[in-house]
Amino acid sequence: MTANPAAPIDVAVGILMKPNGDVLLGQRPEGKPYAGYWEFPGGKVERDESILDALKREFVEELGIEVVSAEPWCGVEHVYPHAHVRLHFYISRDWKGEPQSLEGQAFAWQGTLGVEPLLPATIPLIEWLDRVRYS
């Protein structure tokens, strides 16, 4: 049994949710691990940064929108071949601006998720998310 000596990397992940339950997914750009896979937008938490501050910063950098408020939803740890990540998911129903592709990534509003492939850590969340979206 081999232990992963690297401590998990904290990642802030945001689920933008429209009133009708649609959520925004982004496609990982070329040059990144799992390029072409779909995921919820977000990014690495910097040293001395709160999860929510990281989320807000990433959404400005990646999508050009301002998250007004977001609620913590769940946390998931996942070990990829290239990294051990601790994902902190937030749901936001309140933001300013329209998402733009500032890093060249494709993105899509999804009701029933029709994009593939999904990033492995995202897959188990879809069923849980449906309970939030359509309850």
UniProtKB/TrEMBL annotation:
InterPro entries: MutT-like, Nudix_hydrolase, NUDIX_hydrolase-like_dom_sf, NUDIX_hydrolase_CS, NUDIX_hydrolase_dom. It holds the Pfam family NUDIX. SUPFAM superfamilies: Nudix. Its cofactor is Mg(2+). This is 8-oxo-dGTP diphosphatase. Belongs to the Nudix hydrolase family. Its EC number is 3.6.1.55.
